[in-house]
Amino acid sequence: MSFAGIRDKVRAAEPLSLEDGVALYEHPNLMEVGALANEVRERLHGDRTFFNRNMHINATNVCEASCMFCSFARLKVGDAGAYTMSHEEAFGRLRARIDAKDAITEIHIVNGLHPGLPFDYYTDLLAGLKRIEPSIHLKAFTAVEIFYYARKFEMSVGDVIAKLHAAGLDSMPGGGAEIFAPRVRKKICDDKCTGDEWLDVHRTAHRMGLRSNCTMLYGTIETVEERVDHMLRLRALQDETGGFQTFIPLAFHPDNNALMKLPAPTGTEDLRTYAVARLMLHNIPHIKAYWIMLGVKTAQTALWFGADDLDGTVQEERIYHMAGAETPQVMSPAEIIRIIRNAGRTPVERDTLYNVVAEGAALASDKPFRRDVRRSLEVVS
Amino acid sequence: MSTSSTADARPTVAPPEGLAALDLFALGRQAAAARDARWNGRGFFVRNRPPATNVIVALPFRLGESDAERLARLGEIAAAATPPFGIMPAPVGEPFGLDTLRCFALCRLALPRVAHVLADVTTLGPRLAQMAFGFGADELYAPIVAERALRLGANANNPALTRKEAVTLIRGAGLVPCERMADGSLQEAAP
After folding, report:
1. Which DSSP symbol is given to A13?
2. pLDDT value at residue A316
3. Distance CA A49, CA A53 (A)
4. Chain A residue numbers touching B98 (CB-CB < 8 A)
5. Residues from chain A contacting residue B150 (CB–CB below 8 Å)
6. Considering A22, A88, A372, B1, which has the largest number of Cβ atoms within 10 A of its Cβ?
7. What class has domain A16-359?
């Protein structure tokens, strides 16, 4: 289909096909694709651009899986660089943020697939963090981790999610999706859950009332068709459950891993992927430019190519920095606000579930640590 | 293909008014069209830069200047009796993406007598430097080396590119990669 035909479909809010997505990737004029994605972005959100105050805890990097693109994992306890936090160590990081009067609303927790930790390690981690700060939103454990726990501890995926939820889990991050195409997974991440299994974990979580995010790792060995197919499979699940909040394209970082001979995705490839994602995923409300991975400059530019979210203040991100990310490990809210305003957009501080925490004049004020009541979860399907 | 590289003497054309309100994509399209009209869809890199024969002027800019202030500075360059061969926008401090891209577009539109608008990989990083081609840049400014060390540790910000990397970045931006040789001739890279 011609670009004009695709534009007509987008303006009529018709879902785009695989062929349309490939045509957008191959369209010679990136500016046209970007402008169309920006139309959709502004139709959904106007100039509003979201961020949150959060921190990351990567409790262990010991991981049985040997994904070729990963620089974070260490196969065994005792390998150089391997670590596992004690609960007190993890709790100390949250206490430090509270002591610093940092008004974080979310902790993002992603770990390696550690073969030696009991299930209690994870439930106690969540429960302990909630004891310290009951209002904090715990966005934790990728579908890959959940699936691993189900196999390892001989429970159903639903039981794992229920136990984690009872311990304090509020929602799930979108990592581990990589590329769903079996051809690619077999080559770059053969020893973790399949694409269907990843989707099924999210389907289960959505049906239990949890929201989640979704991602796509691009820039390794996948084809453009496989990227678009990945987006379509996410879109289909979203039609079914409505549980995805945001889609986050993740650019491959080649340093320190087995794929280091591959070139990193380029800036125009990044922008095109954001734009195509915004156009293909009409039913997923938000597209996030994850500044940690993309770099501040590209992330800011992506705010005009379909993205409406910059993620958060973060703190001590390890996964991408071990893969060569050169971004800082933390940005202050003032810096994020400045970046958004410099892009000609309107900053909005959100919580994990995209409730507005502050916007307009309220953004300028220093706020004490939030101690509001935890939201009840909504069943989305 | 080998052709001659010359800076022509086009009359100065005022850039569009109301730049601040101009749609980002329209600005990019105008600047890229101006670049393509001059260079026919080609983007350049240079391995052996001839010393001081072709003057390249850095244009420092920092966050917070108005378009009017930038245009005034560009106007001074445009009015020079002998305009520079190339101009290289150089953000002071950590560059912001959109501000930098707008500055590239302004340079291309405001300086029609300047042959080249250069994107400096050292200052911008390879991602933003490549994006600048969508906003009127036509030349990648980076050390071109035979073999680049991995960007690790102290080498993390190494701006050097191999010839293949430079060609890939330019082609990925939708342009035909072309090497500007020391004698001024142009050599298109094979697909």
Report:
1. T
2. 58
3. 14
4. 300-301, 303-304, 342-344
5. 255, 260
6. A22
7. alpha beta
Give the type of residue at A335: E
Query: Class for domain B42-188, per CATH?
Result: alpha beta
pTM: 0.86
How buried is residue A86: exposed, middle or buried, by Cβ count under 10 Å (0-12/13-18/19+)?
exposed
- Give B30-56 pLDDT, tens digit per residue: 999 999 999 999 999 998 777 666 788
- Annotate B34-82 with DSSP letters as a single string: HHHHHHTTEEEE-SSPPSSSS-EEEEEE-TT--HHHHHHHHHHHHTSSS
ipTM metric: 0.76
pLDDT on residue B16:
46
Cα–Cα separations (whole angstroms), residue A381 to A112, A204, A263, A281: 30, 10, 41, 19
The residue ranges of chain A whose pLDDT is under 70 are 256, 258, 315-329, 364-381
Burial code (b: 16+ CB inside 10 Å, e: under 16) for B112-125 equals: bbbbbbbbbbebbb
The secondary structure of residue B154, as a DSSP letter, is: G
Give the model confidence (pLDDT) of A243-273 as tens digits: 999 999 999 887 767 677 777 788 999 999 9
**Do A103 and A362 contact (CB within 8 A), yes or no?**
no
Of the candidates A31, A35, A297, the beta carbon closest to that of B128 is on: A297
CB–CB of B127/A291 below 8 Å? no
B64 vs A210: which has the higher pLDDT: A210
The structure tokens listed for B177 are 């990669």
Determine the length of chain A: 381
B11 pLDDT more than 70: no
Domain parsing of chain A, residue ranges? 16-359
Instruction: With beta carbons under 8 A apart, name residues in chain B contacting A344.
Output: 24, 98
Q: How far is CA A237 from CA A123, A212, A369, in A?
A: 28, 12, 36
Backbone angles phi, psi at A345, to 5 degrees: -115, 170
Of A355, A358, A232, give the one whose Cα is nearest residue A284.
A232
Range picked from A248-252, A284-288, B121-125, B182-186 for highest mean pLDDT: A284-288
* Structural tokens at position A164: 């984690």
Between CA A73 and CA A68 the distance in angstroms is: 10
